[in-house]
Write a structure and sequence with these properties.
Largest sheet: 8 strands, parallel, barrel
Shape: globular
Number of domains: 1
CATH topology: TIM Barrel
Structural class: alpha/beta
Radius of gyration: 19 Å
Number of helices: 12
Bound molecules: flavin mononucleotide
Order of helices and strands: HHEEEHEEEHEHEHEHEEHEHEHHH
CATH class: Alpha Beta
Strand content: 15-25%
Strand order of the largest sheet: 3-4-7-8-9-10-12-13
Number of strands: 13
Distance between the termini: 16 Å
CATH architecture: Alpha-Beta Barrel
CATH superfamily: Aldolase class I
Oligomer: single chain
Length: about 350
């Protein structure tokens, strides 16, 4: 409701300025009981995945809360789980602004944020302070200055720091905005990274007496025949889930629209069909061996259900929240499990 009133004004502002205004304001409104948000996870279809019990299958996608600064606010949206980050070992400013663009006519965003974040030490403090007790995915990455051959060092450092706090750890090798990052999706670079993460997890599991699931997030721009191949490597390395997908470098469907030629990753409605197709191909390859978290272009309840029907166990939202506001969470939860959600309404 509040969001519906504010949106026309917010859309007059630069996209990143609007983003920076809206979250602190919503947090303040929520503290004073004025947000009208559900307050906690909406009842819906309960899903067991990665050894975790999700109260509903709709989650926040990575990148909205990069610094773990708004955990309690997002928890109040009604999500069944939150994924925060991407966080890197050292703080970094990201790319120069402007770096986030709205393409409202296509219900899309282009971003080239470049992992702007406060660094792992601050991030861990923020998570501890929030005392959020729902399902928390922590998405980890590498610093821009770390050469790609040393990438595993950064992922391992982040894994060590977040291990005791994460319900699952999401490994981001698919952002289009960090040079060469997507090279980690293939060949010896992928093997080396999965080996390093597997080894480190075995050691951390002994130390903490808990095996934290690892989910790997992939790009929609992988060629079709690379999809079963990467799924096979994930299974061989005991990866626990696949998050599909990140933003695309394609510009299909944007011809002639303002900002269409900005560099970065495209998200929102134009990504929907390809993200669903990737889920379908993954599901065919995996045959239920590990769960798929479907993300990309979910802007309605029907879109969420389509992703589940394609083979995802869970879904995540980002751009849909910008265009639809928090009401999209309830709509997606209800579409996936109409009966349970109607009873709660
Ligand atoms: C501004 C912005 C920042 C993002 N930052 C991250 C990030 O830090 N890590 C990540 O894994 N994905 C990031 N994403 C990708 C989203 O998590 C999601 O995979 C993508 O936006 C597709 O979903 P959507 O169409 O619902 O937005 C970002 C997306 C946007 C729009």
């Amino acid at each position: 409701m509040l969001f519906d009133l504010a949106r026309p004004l917010l859309f007059l502002l630069d996209a990143e300025v609007a983003h920076e205004l809206v979250l602190p304001s919503a947090r303040l409104a929520h503290r004073f009981g004025l947000s009208g948000l559900p307050g906690g996870p909406l009842p819906g279809r309960q899903v067991n995945a990665m050894g975790l019990a999700f109260p509903n299958p709709v989650g926040l996608a990575a990148g909205f809360d990069k610094n773990a600064a708004f955990l309690r606010l997002f928890a109040a949206f009604g999500f069944g789980f939150l994924e925060i980050g991407t966080v890197t070992p050292r703080p970094q400013p990201g790319n120069p602004k402007p770096r986030l663009f709205r393409i409202a006519a296509a219900r899309a965003l282009i971003n080239r944020m470049g992992f702007n974040n406060c660094g792992i030490a601050r991030f861990v403090e923020n998570v501890r302070r929030a005392r959020y007790d729902g399902i928390l995915g922590i998405n980890i990455g590498k610093n821009a200055a770390t050469p790609i051959e040393r990438a595993a060092d950064d992922y391992v450092a982040c894994m060590q720091a977040v291990y005791p706090l994460a319900s699952y750890i999401a490994v981001n090798i698919s952002s289009p905005n960090t040079k060469d990052l997507r090279e980690l999706q293939r060949g010896t670079a992928l093997e080396g990274l999965l080996d390093a993460l597997g080894r480190e997890r075995r050691s951390l599991a002994r130390k903490h007496n808990r095996r934290v699931p690892i989910a790997v997030k992939i790009a929609p721009d992988l060629e079709d025949d690379a999809i079963p191949a990467i799924a096979e490597r994930f299974l061989a390395h005991e990866v626990d889930a696949i998050i599909a997908t990140n933003a695309t470098v394609s510009r299909a469907g944007l011809a002639g629209l303002p900002h269409a030629d900005e560099a970065g990753g495209l998200t929102g409605a134009p990504l929907r069909a390809r993200a669903t197709e990737v889920v379908r191909r993954l599901a065919a390859a995996l045959q239920g061996a590990i769960p798929i978290i479907g993300v990309g272009g979910i802007l309605s309840g029907a879109d969420a259900l389509e992703r589940i029907d394609a083979g995802a166990s869970l879904v995540q939202l980002y751009t849909g929240l910008v265009y639809r506001g928090p009401a999209l969470v309830r709509e997606a939860v209800a579409a996936i499990e109409p009966q349970a959600a109607r009873m709660a309404a």
